[in-house]
């Protein structure tokens, strides 16, 4: 299975229509996130509209075990106009009338406005509390672009991982839009100050990779699999986020003497001291096997190595797939979508990690094909962001209700991220952060924020049980 299911002409007969688009490069460099000026030490990308047309290649879904240089292409989604959230209270200031001084001040103000150039295409990010943003209800979710600053990544971000430790998001791996990355370093993003930093790391630093997994365990990131180009990895690396030291842990095969095959585009969750790996692809075929890696209790030393075990599940299991997502909800691993290289899936599967029984959730309408998307649990919902729907990249936000086991519509204001897949998302302080991504021709280095607001949390069920049917 190749790490990016970009198309070959033989996999599908779908074509994509020529569409207008323009990518504008802007570089905010102020040492503070609260300025609106731009400078020259960033590679932040901003999408803007254009009336020109660009040529497109015939696109289809690429077989996960086949390589190709073709890329999926699609039009960027048009964002709604920027609006501002209302505060809980407001003050109305009356406007005086009938005085000469008022008329003079109004005339002077009008003259000043006429002499100031208009900035109709502002590239500076705007948040809901900015002064010149229109009002919007505080109970509705709101998209905005983060005013990032600091040591911004020097490359675009595609098929990377972002893991939250306290208030810091740790970004590792990925590549640019040409599937090239020589960057082995870690970047950190402070979700409170919006500052990027580029900390030094030491030890056994892993090689460049993408489509890997990064799983948090005891403030350590455990990296498994991934690859770059035609290379696939089966290695395990550990980054201690406290000491910023990389190590190669001691890992032994399971009781049957086997280890999982090298893979990428798989999923991983942490449960009861073990990392649970599902699916992915080898470059030749897609997979649907389940493995555990025992990592708890300081495992990884010669005296106490990490240990692989292949999990024998019961009942009908999902078909082989990669570029799906997996979320741990209680003791249930919820698998959504993905692709085997020929088909994209709409199905939702649940694996009980205690009984090891798979169950298929009954299909509801509408259903959505998705691969290369992200899924983030928010209370009793899974927020599914972006990805590819077997025809185009999308910027749509889907909300999957874990109680009713169906999708629900929800109003979202602001300007959403442009169409993309292979991005990363995290939930931090009642906000969903979206990092980078790829739209079939261009990869991004931007960060977007979905302010979840009261509207996202008021309907939440804090205690619930999933019942797969």
From TrEMBL:
Residues 1-130, 303-322 are annotated as: Disordered. Keywords: Kelch repeat, Repeat. Coiled coil: none annotated. Transmembrane segments: none annotated. It holds the Pfam family Kelch_KLHDC2_KLHL20_DRC7. InterPro entries: Kelch-typ_b-propeller (IPR015915), Kelch_1 (IPR006652). Residues 26-51, 78-114 have a biased composition (Low complexity). Residues 117-130 have a biased composition (Basic and acidic residues). Residues 1-15, 57-77 have a biased composition (Polar residues). It comes from the Eukaryota. This is Galactose oxidase. The lineage of its organism: Eukaryota, Fungi, Dikarya, Basidiomycota, Agaricomycotina.
């Amino acid at each position: 299975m190749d790490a990016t299911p970009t198309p070959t002409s033989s996999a599908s007969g779908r074509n994509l229509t020529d569409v207008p688009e323009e990518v504008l490069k802007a570089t905010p460099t102020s040492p503070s996130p609260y300025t609106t000026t731009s400078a020259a030490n960033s590679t932040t990308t901003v999408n803007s509209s254009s009336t020109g047309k660009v040529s497109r290649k015939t696109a289809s879904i690429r077989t996960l075990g086949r390589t190709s240089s073709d890329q999926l292409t699609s039009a960027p989604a048009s964002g709604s106009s920027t609006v501002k959230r209302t505060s809980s209270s407001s003050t109305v200031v009356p406007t005086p009338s009938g005085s000469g001084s008022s008329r003079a001040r109004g005339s002077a103000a009008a003259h000043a406005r006429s002499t100031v150039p208009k900035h109709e295409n502002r590239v500076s990010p705007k948040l809901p509390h900015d002064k010149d943003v229109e009002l919007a209800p505080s109970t509705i979710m709101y998209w905005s672009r983060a005013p990032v600053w600091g040591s911004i990544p020097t490359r675009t971000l595609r098929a990377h991982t972002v893991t939250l430790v306290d208030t810091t998001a740790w970004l590792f791996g990925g590549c640019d839009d040409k599937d090239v990355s020589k960057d082995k370093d870690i970047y950190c993003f402070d979700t409170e100050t919006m500052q990027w930093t580029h900390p030094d790391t030491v030890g056994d630093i892993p090689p460049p990779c993408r489509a890997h997994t990064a799983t948090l365990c005891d403030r350590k990131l455990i990296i498994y699999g991934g690859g770059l180009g035609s290379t696939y990895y089966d290695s395990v690396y550990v980054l201690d986020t406290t000491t910023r030291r990389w190590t190669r842990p001691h890992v032994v095969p399971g009781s049957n003497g086997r280890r999982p095959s090298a893979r990428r585009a798989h999923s991983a969750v942490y449960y009861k001291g073990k990392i649970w790996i599902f699916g992915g692809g080898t470059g030749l075929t897609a997979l649907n096997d389940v493995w555990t890696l025992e990592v708890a209790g300081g495992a990884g030393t010669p005296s106490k190595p990490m240990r692989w075990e292949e999990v024998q599940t019961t009942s009908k299991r999902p078909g082989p797939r990669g570029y799906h997502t997996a979320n741990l909800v209680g003791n249930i691993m919820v698998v959504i979508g993905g692709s085997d290289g020929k088909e994209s899936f709409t199905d939702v599967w649940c694996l009980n990690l205690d009984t090891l029984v798979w169950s298929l959730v009954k299909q509801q309408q509408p259903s959505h094909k998705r691969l290369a998307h992200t899924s983030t649990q928010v209370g009793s919902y899974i927020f599914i962001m972006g990805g590819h729907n077997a025809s185009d990249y999308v910027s749509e936000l889907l909300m999957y209700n874990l109680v009713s086991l169906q999708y629900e519509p929800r109003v979202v204001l602001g300007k959403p991220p442009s169409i993309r897949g292979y991005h990363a998302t995290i939930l931090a302080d009642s906000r969903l952060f979206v990092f980078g991504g790829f739209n079939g021709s261009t990869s991004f280095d931007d960060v977007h924020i979905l302010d979840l607001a009261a509207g996202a949390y008021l309907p939440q069920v804090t205690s619930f049980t999933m019942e797969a049917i």
